[in-house]
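BUG-348 | component: ligand-complex export | severity: low

The export step for zinc ion jobs runs without errors, but we want the raw record kept on the ticket for reference. Input record follows.
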Amino acid sequence: MTTITIKTSNEYNVHIGQGLLTNFSVIPKASDSQAVIVTDDIVASLYEAALTKHLTECGFQCHSFIFPHGEASKSMATVTDLLQFMSSHHICRTDLIFALGGGIVGDLAGFAASIYLRGIRFIQLPTTLLAAVDSSVGGKTAVNLPAGKNLAGTFTQPLTVYCDIRTLSTLPEDIFSDGCAEIIKYAMISEKELLPLIKDGISKHLEEIISLCVSIKGEVVAEDEFDTGLRQLLNFGHTLGHAIEKCSDFTISHGSAVAIGMALMTKAAVKMNFCEEQLLQELLSMLHACSLPVTCPYTVQELYDASLSDKKHASGTVTLIVPVALGKCILHKADNQELYTMIEAALS
Ligand SMILES: NC(=O)c1ccc[n+]([C@@H]2O[C@H](COP(=O)([O-])OP(=O)(O)OC[C@H]3O[C@@H](n4cnc5c(N)ncnc54)[C@H](O)[C@@H]3O)[C@@H](O)[C@H]2O)c1
Ligand SMILES: [Zn+2]
C-alpha cells in the first residue's frame, strides 16, 4: 500500500493498494454511528455488499443510496433525493458518507456531504481509473445545471481516500482508457518518471502510476486549492478536448477527446516554437500505447466555435496550457485571434 498526504487546508491521506475496499480501518465516533454509502447501480451490483459487510463489521449501521449510473444523474434532483434520504435516517454530523464509485458518484456525494447540516465528513472510494488519479483528490465537488456541467459545487476536501486497485479490474476498456488519457496528461505537466511506466503498459504498474499522479495532483492542489492559477495546468488538453466532446454531441468520450486535445495542442506548440518536435513524438507514442485517438474529425471553424462557447472564455481571452518540454507546461493567455491561429496550426 502507498500513502500520500495532500497538504490542503484540511490535510488528508490518500491510500492506494490491493483489496483496500474491505480492509481499511475506520472507527465510528459513537456506538450508534451510521454510514451512508452513495453509489450508482453498476458499482452497487459489484461492490456495495462487500463494503456494507466491512463497515458493519467496523461497527456502523449502513444505509445505501443507489442512483442510476450516468452523467444525467449528476443533478440537483439527485442531490435533493440524497439529502432527503440522509435526513430520513437522521444522519448527523458524527456520521460518515462513503462515495463508492467513479467521478460522478464522488462529485455528487461530496457535494451533498458538503452542504448537509453545513458539512458532514465524507470518504472517497474511487472505483474508476479517472476517479483514482483525478476526481477523488483535490476537493472539487459539483453537480450539473441545465446550463452546463459542474456549475453548482463547492471546494470540500474528503476525510480520506481509499483507492482499491482491485476494483479497477472490472472496468470496461473504454472507461479504463478515459483514465489513461488523464495519466498521460500528468506526464506532460510533471513527468516524474511516468513515461517509461506508461509505455510499458499502465495496467502493469497501476499502484505506482496512480501514486505518482496523486502526488502530482496533490502538489498542484496544495499550491492552488481554490483554483485561481496554477491548478489550470490540470486542464492541459481540456480546452480543445471539451470542444471536441461538444462537436461530437458527447459521442466521443472525455478521455478520447482529451487525448486528441493534447495531441492538437502539442502539434500547435511545435509549429509555434514553444517546444521541440521530439515532445510531440513522445506524447503520440504514449497515446498509441494506450490505444487513444490522436486525430480530430472536425474543421478549424467548428473547433473554434465550440471552444468559444465554453464558459471559461466569456471575457474574450482564454488561458491555454502550452507544453514546452516533457513534464513542463506553461499557462499562456491568448485572445480569440491567437486561439484561432493555434487551432489552425494544430489542424494544418
Ligand atoms: N472533481 C474533480 O476534480 C473532477 C475531475 C475530473 C472529472 N470529474 C467528473 O468525473 C465524472 C466522470 O467520472 P468517471 O469517468 O469516473 O465516470 P463515472 O463515475 O460515470 O463512471 C463511469 C462508468 O463506470 C462504471 N463503473 C465505475 N466503477 C466501476 C468498476 N470498478 N467496474 C465496472 N464499472 C464501473 C460506472 O457505473 C459508470 O457507468 C464527470 O462528471 C466529471 O465532471 C471531476
Ligand atoms: Zn479530464
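Assignee comment: Attached the raw record above. The pocket of zinc ion (ligand 2) is lined by residues 182, 238, 254, 258 (CB under 6 Å).
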